[in-house]
Amino acid sequence: MERVAIIGASMTQFGQREGWIRELLAEAGIACLEDAGVDADELDHLYVSNMASGEFEGQTGVVNALVHDLDAMPAYTQRVDQTSSSGGAGIYAAWQSIASGASELTLLVGGEKMTHRTTGEATDVIASLTHPAEYKHGVTLPSFAGLTARHYLERFDAPRESLAKVAVKNHRNGVDNPNAQFRKEVDLETVLESPIVADPLRLYDFCPITDGSAALLFCPESVAREYADEYVVIAGIDGATDTHVVHERDDPTIMGGVVESGEGAYEMSGYGPSDVDVAELHDMFTILEFLQMEGLGFAEQGEAWELVEDGKTDRDGEFPINTSGGLKSKGHPLGASGVAQGVEIYEQLVGEAGPRQVDAEVGLCCNVGGFGNCVITTIMEAAR
Amino acid sequence: MERVAIIGASMTQFGQREGWIRELLAEAGIACLEDAGVDADELDHLYVSNMASGEFEGQTGVVNALVHDLDAMPAYTQRVDQTSSSGGAGIYAAWQSIASGASELTLLVGGEKMTHRTTGEATDVIASLTHPAEYKHGVTLPSFAGLTARHYLERFDAPRESLAKVAVKNHRNGVDNPNAQFRKEVDLETVLESPIVADPLRLYDFCPITDGSAALLFCPESVAREYADEYVVIAGIDGATDTHVVHERDDPTIMGGVVESGEGAYEMSGYGPSDVDVAELHDMFTILEFLQMEGLGFAEQGEAWELVEDGKTDRDGEFPINTSGGLKSKGHPLGASGVAQGVEIYEQLVGEAGPRQVDAEVGLCCNVGGFGNCVITTIMEAAR
């Protein structure tokens, strides 16, 4: 089977942005095409990862708007929605478009515009992905995170500080990401003394509400060198689901979708956890970084916190995680987040990560929808 | 490349339905699996074509809900949105999932729940797909249809009655479709004397607001015989876009997306217009049936109306169109419509269309998003 290459990447400034979703999508799309030196009229397919432009802005049909704004007609287009993992699902859709032979050149743009709504309105839209039977009892995504964090800390005798250190690390990394929403360090005390959101988790254990967009450009590996000297290949990719009703899961510390999608991606790539040099994990809540580290085999169950405590996941550690700053400091514009994870791994693998650069040949992204409801794991390698 | 087979099909009763979108999706999904004798836990991928469950019902994450309701975890899932052509885009996504090797068994379920909202609310959601620059001047999709119909009738010297005969024909076909929303014949006078909506088009030139769901099951052709004695193969499929701003198009009677997607599907299949025995076209407005007939090469520009006048597109004519009753009488639950087109062609090609059965080896579906903004054309053939 033809392998799929990524030959261009871009992301907009994340944060509080003016304008509408279609402007953010076009900004990242145009920058990505320029990055690869490709004209929009060369595109065969164009996918947009976006959860809720209709709910946030009353604008649907954003895929057609983007094709129009890029002047890419008659390129095929489709919106990919998998809630907060829409970006990862977009990578999978773009991969399928190339691997199936349907497209020779596919642009993926992920984006979301949220900050013009109040935090309450924005979180209400996000909460609409949960099961009504849980939501009506008030068990929102942050509540699940709080319950899971308490369970994890007690069961595995982990210190509360280890969770806070995820936030401290990711904020530190974000300082060197010019597109991050928050480019400021936070110290342990600030995290530990921030307002309680869902006990034991506090404000700094949560990612912010964010506007932003990110893009990747895909082609068959056989023609990648025509576009780029340095490029990245998708070595493995898989997606998986877990129950919609979260309380039906046997063990709240095991994210089934992470485990299953990780196994699929490892199998396809021929790599294992120890081959991965750098990873972008979905740290919407600090506890999720632990659960993904364990689900993907980077740590045994109940032991991820020790790696964080020991600094092994720092940028200069043995196994850097979230060198981009993660969702925590970079921000979490739903449909963009999974694509932006891919942008970071792409930049790390082609050596364009600037002050965030680590030594890496193989990178992994894990993008999580809901509370692990849908998960995509992608393994990329630098072209040799 | 491995060809993709369709081994099962189902649709729910279309019309005004009780319950929520997740129940409608599950109803069609379960029926489709039963049709093929497949258990849900065999599924690799599960796609949901749906435009606006968040806007209509305040429920997002319906893909995860459906995986849960079918007990299909850890099957991969994703929502496919291309507004009113989401169903056709779902067929393309399912095709890519199989052709790329990502999945060996993919279920596609398309559905929409709309009738619990007022007609005004429902049409507002649909209108949100149009370009704001046109929408704010009141040019909605029905307006475009009225303007285009007037232009077509005058330019090609076509009688108003020819448009009405599309409605008469499709209503006549719908009588024999047990799942159609309207199973009643309408005569020419009724159409021509119904209330004006967008002059010269009247109430019976438009499809209704509808709830419903439809499903198709896909696998590689190499294993199709293990599941089904009779099955269908996707011979050609392609999608294309036209401008988001409708008034920027050079000729309002030429739907660029129809032409481009049709050419792509013909080229892939090796078939031409004269090889097609039966077609499901997107008759959201009667005028669209003419424009698609011409865009797909079934008639020269400005001459489709003559085929309708002559009865050639009747069920017992040379080239039957919309044997299902079309969107016109069957109904148009946005995300379901393109899938239901596929269900009709599947049933025609495997000989399960009952009283609607025509003699056909090759069938075509054309699913249109917006006013031709996004179009998918699929050509299917009976397995030999």
TrEMBL record, chains A, B:
Protein name, as recorded: Thiolase family protein
CDD domains xrefs: SCP-x_thiolase (cd00829)
Domain Thiolase C-terminal residues, every copy: 240-381
One example GO MF annotation: acyltransferase activity, transferring groups other than amino-acyl groups
Stretches assigned to the Thiolase N-terminal domain: 4-222
A biological-process GO annotation: isoprenoid biosynthetic process
Keywords tagged on the record: Isoprene biosynthesis
Pfam families linked: Thiolase_C_1, Thiolase_N
Record carries keyword Transmembrane helix: no
